[in-house]
Amino acid sequence: MKVEKAPASAGETKPAGVKVKITHDNGHRHAGIKHPKDAVITVSEADKKLIVEHFKVGEEVTGE
Question: How far apart are alpha carbons 14 and 3 in whole angstroms?
Fold first, then answer.
């Protein structure tokens, strides 16, 4: 008898807990929504890395 198990992470969503401020003049499209310059959005750690380090269109918001 073969039992198919779902991965341990199936059905779980990671909390989106990092705030990023968009700094690019033309804004940035994230999750299908165009965010204007100076908008602060909450994203996952992986998305923060892409926005800040790869695309270079934002900066992490600390404090508040």
Answer: 27
Domain boundaries, the chain: 18-60
pLDDT tens digits for the chain (64 residues)? 676 766 655 555 556 589 999 999 999 999 999 999 999 999 999 999 999 999 999 999 997 5
Contacts of 18 (CB under 8 A, 6+ apart): 42, 43, 44, 45, 47, 48, 60
Residue 19: its H or E element: strand 18-22
The gap between the terminal CA atoms of the chain, to the nearest Å, is: 55
Extract the tokens encoding 31. Answer: 């999750």
pTM: 0.72
Q: What does residue 30 show for φ and ψ, rounded to 5 degrees?
A: -135, 130
